[in-house]
Amino acid sequence: MAAWLAGMTELGPVAWPPAPIRTERLLLRASEPRDRPAFVELLASPEVNTYLGGPRPRADLERELPAVPEQWPGSFVVELDGAMIGHVLLRRPPERQRPAAVGRADLGYLFLPEAWGSGYATEACAAALDWFDRALPGEPTVLFTQSANVASMRLAAKLGFAEVERFEAWGAEQWLGLRSPTP
Ligand SMILES: CC(C)(COP(=O)(O)OP(=O)(O)OC[C@H]1O[C@@H](n2cnc3c(N)ncnc32)[C@H](O)[C@@H]1OP(=O)(O)O)[C@@H](O)C(=O)NCCC(=O)NCCS
């Protein structure tokens, strides 16, 4: 198990890993060695990466992914019946350029195609945002997505993100949303 981290992390002063978070159907937890094959699937899938710059070659992933992929504060593996179905990320990238996003934490999500259309992404992201609201009270979050990514746009709206702006980048229209924290 990863060491207990308390103190300043990229995300802020959060304790990590948290106790696993249970929702009605899912479990959110820090990543573990047994999740590696599902991370390879997520990153190698053309469907998952349609709006994320395209898939990565499976052989490269098999070679390069660390034994415990994406192990950092704010990175949640989403589990259904004991198997990983998705990845929900809350991070504070230092390189953000859009004024409304500078210094803010942003939400990201990737689910395996066989898990789409069942409301799992909504359920998992809501739980991760709830964790964030308790870990760093009073902080808004932002979300970037391509506006052509219809499923992602619907999810952002359901989670309470409101449009800040649309802008062109990487050859496509991007959408930036902002969510106020739940008190
Ligand atoms: C974006 C992504 C996570 C959305 O997944 P999803 O399964 O469509 O998302 P949801 O959890 O909102 O579920 C969708 C549908 O399940 C249906 N559903 C079925 N059972 C449900 C239940 N018990 N509760 C809620 N919804 C349910 C709903 O009809 C919902 O559709 P709606 O938008 O009409 O409400 C997924 O498409 C994905 O992983 N894409 C690839 C990665 C990506 O592009 N990420 C964005 C990066 S910015």
Bound molecules: coenzyme A
Radius of gyration: 16 Å
Low-confidence stretches: none
Name the strands of the widest sheet in spatial order: 1-2-3-4-5-6-8-7
Overall number of strands: 8
User: Structural class, please?
Assistant: alpha+beta
| SSE ordering | EEHHEEEHEHEE
Biggest sheet overview: 8 strands, mixed
Give the fraction of residues assigned to helices: 10-25%
Question: Average pLDDT, to the nearest integer?
Answer: 94
State which percent range the strand residues make up.
Answer: 25-35%
**Cα-to-Cα separation, first versus last residue:** 32 Å
So how many helices? 4
Q: What is the approximate shape?
A: globular
Structure description:
The protein has 183 residues and is α+β, with helices and mostly antiparallel strands. It contains 4 helices and 8 strands, in the order E-E-H-H-E-E-E-H-E-H-E-E. The chain has an 8-stranded mixed β-sheet with strand order 1-2-3-4-5-6-8-7, sandwiched between helices. Strand 3 and strand 4 (83-91) form a beta hairpin. The model has no long low-confidence stretch (mean pLDDT 94). The structure holds coenzyme A.
